[in-house]
Fold:
Amino acid sequence: MVVEGVTKAFGATPVLRGVTLTAPPGTLTAVLGRSGCGKTTLLRIVAGFDRPDAGTVALHGRTVAGPGRALPPEQRGIGYLTQEGSLFPHLTVAANVLFGLPRRERRQGGARVAALLETVDLAPELADRHPHELSGGQQQRVALARALAPEPAVVLLDEPFSSLDAGLRADTQRAVAKALAAAGATALLVTHDRAEALALADQVAVMRDGVIAQVDAPAAIYRDPVDPGVGALVGDAVLLDGRRAAAGRVSCALGDLALRGDGPDATQVRVLVRPEQLVVGRDGPGVPARVRTREFRGPDLTVELAVGAGAEDAVVVAARLPGDADVLPGDDVTVAVRGAVTAYRV
Amino acid sequence: MTVVGRRARVGDPLRVAVASAAALLALLPVGYIAVSAVLLGPRGIVDLVWRPRVGELLVNTTVLLVATATACAVLGTATAWVTERTDLPGAPVWGALFAAPLAVPAFVTSYAWVSVLPGVDGFVGALVVTTMSYFPLVHLPVAAVLRGLDRDQEDVARALGLSAGAAAVRVVLPAMRPAIVGGALLVGLHLLAEYGALALLRYPTVTVAIYDLFESTFAGPGAIVLAGVLVVLCLVLLAVDVALVGRARRARVGSGAARRRARTPLGAARVPALLGVGLLVVAALGVPLASLVRWLLEGRSTTLEAGPLLTATVTSIGLGLLAAAVTTALTFPVAWLAVRRPGRLPRLLERTAYLGNALPGIVVALALIIVAIRLVPGLYQTTPLLITAYAILFMPLALVNLRAALVRLPPELEDVAHGLGSPPAAVLVRVTAPLLARGAGAAAALVFLAVSTELTATLLLAPTGTTTLATAFWGKATALAYGAAAPYAATMVLISVPAAFLLTRHVHAGVRT
Structure:
């Protein structure tokens, strides 16, 4: 799937300002962005529900949208999964799943339905149920089975997990990822949930204000975002003002830290540290700090630390510690940084 | 993230074309009146309007309108309150009985009173008959509001130190106000359109006078100017509606789990309350039904015209089915565009299509007759012209239902079907149509039932030799052949019962029958 220079405006409001994105065949690309960034519009343009103002969309080598040319969605060979699943309420699970198949294949019925339901880990007994008799997670899986039935080369997923509650979400995500991989389809997943994007995708495209800010593998984009904004979007971030000292080193409120790569060619920089890089101890290495707040979450806890001697100009950073860490608000601790950090031109 | 807006897609031009045709049709009567007014010029209009007779008609109409609307507002609110909020014995049964008068066309109620008590006529007779016919138009929406009202609000008011009475006045009454005012204005629109009931009672309003003028001078300038006056009155009511309730109605909280809770005990007022609702049911339902039964029995002993009754029934049903199909088909694109392509043009088309809601049948009929005679003389007194009038009058009934059904149908379903390889026509057949079937069925049924009891436009437009239940009844009732009229009236009431039932669900949407 190749999207090139796609722009789109609704009235006077530009939504996409030249989006270029390539999704290699058989991989899952997550488009991650805040609501209103244009990611759903991009998905709808790829699907053919909207037309781009400029730019082209090609699916498996065939241009489906471009200057003076737009293939209607039904001829694009896509699978489309919506937020709520959008099962046809007047049809049974079986009829829903078979909906996209030619009439001849629809007649085969039973065995085909069971096979399709199995690909999404659903029991064949569900075939005769109606959508309202299913749980949210089951509905989403049926919707995926329906989308995969015609064997589309490209599957488009529009926040398909956001309406599920936390417990169901993880299970459904796993089932969907597995089924997509088994089908070998190229998938485009639009989401605002960074954990979901990082966990499911082969590559993550961060979208901001109608353009793609960065495309990379999940680990790479998390470790090495192109700017602090992308960094804060893909994960929790501690951002500090710093000063570039010697080559490969930066000094900031957390001390003198090692840089990943050479860093920018500037003296005044902005330093990005991930909370889990902070090592908090008593009389350990690093700079002194005082615990301000403590938020317990079970497996881990988050503390806010005031770094620096004077309380007035103290820099506040958040650190993630194991859930059994023995710190309380008011405690004096030391904080050090594990691993290299990233710095940006201010 | 929600969809910001959508571009036109395949199939839209056809929908826009049909929807525009529907809107133009709805605009035709008002447009014709406006053009005539311009052609007559200010002097011509003043000459025709500034007459003692017109003044008399306007006073008659306004006095009856204000009196009936007020009476219906008071009665309808009282019945809604009593059946929804007090421990009146048998409250649900009373509630159903208060909706039932809608199943009896007003001109049948009028016939029932006149034929039993020949002295009932003039203002008092008109006030009694129209109030008994129309108060359910207030009762139903107010009862719906009382049922849906979040009763926590009252509890909060009580907790803040208000007495039960004060809470009712400061919390419940404001919530009911849009429903009361909206219902009363609907009563007003019905009254402005009413011909049959008032003609039988010999109470001349503008509408009655237009019909009489038409009978004597055909579509002369006098009738046209009076029709213009009538349209202005209707528009005034609509403007009042928009100014008073438009916003409030939209802001109203929708459904919500109806929670059972304690009803206000009537105490010592229980017996008077029972007497009151009993008396009302006798007047609104008992008199018409008893009178109908009496004439049925009496007519049976003298003349039983099985043949003509059957012919008229078949004609009414046939016209009803045809009009239902045409109106629903014509309205669907309007509803679809309004829901799926929100924008200035769809909104304009939708508003225009609602115009028939406020137009009396006589105005629509008159305009169609004159336009047909000027432009396509062959159309006059043909079934297509009659069906056109029905379509203009009853498009709003279809529109409300189709719109509600479309709103409940998420657009993603159509998108998903496209994505699965179905071309637009297949999506319509396999997804949209089955899911809309109920809404479209309700739309068609309401149009069918409204057509099968329509009198005024049918009298003016029916092809020579075409007799419907309503016109056959009318011919006999005006000839004082009360016994012979009864079987036709009874058949109409039987056909109307399902309409009344359907209307109980839709009346608060502001749609006239």
Q: What stands out?
A: Chain B touches chain A through 25 residues (CB under 8 Å). Confidence is low (pLDDT under 50) at residues 1-8, 248-260, 507-513 of chain B.
